[in-house]
Amino acid sequence: MTGAPVRSGTAGFSLIEMLVVLAVLGLVASLAVPALGNLLPGQRLDGTASAVAGELTRLRAQARRT
């Protein structure tokens, strides 16, 4: 009768491997957060410009009617 092979040692990650992964994730996050922060003001500006353009169009149409 043959059983499942016995594994010597333990399965899983070592503390050093976990620390390396956390360090890499921290580095990626520190690079990504400022990039996302710079993206938001540009979107706000685009939205404001669209609102102003829409308001000007509305006022132009109103001026033609009167």
UniProtKB/TrEMBL annotation:
Transmembrane helix among keywords: yes
Parts of the chain that traverse the membrane: 12-36
Entry keywords, A to Z: Membrane, Transmembrane, Transmembrane helix
InterPro entries according to UniProt: N_methyl_site, Pilin-like
Coiled-coil spans in chain: none
Family annotation (PROSITE patterns): PROKAR_NTER_METHYL (PS00409)
Entry keyword annotation includes Acyltransferase: no
Protein name: Putative general secretion pathway protein
Annotated source species: Methylorubrum extorquens DSM 13060
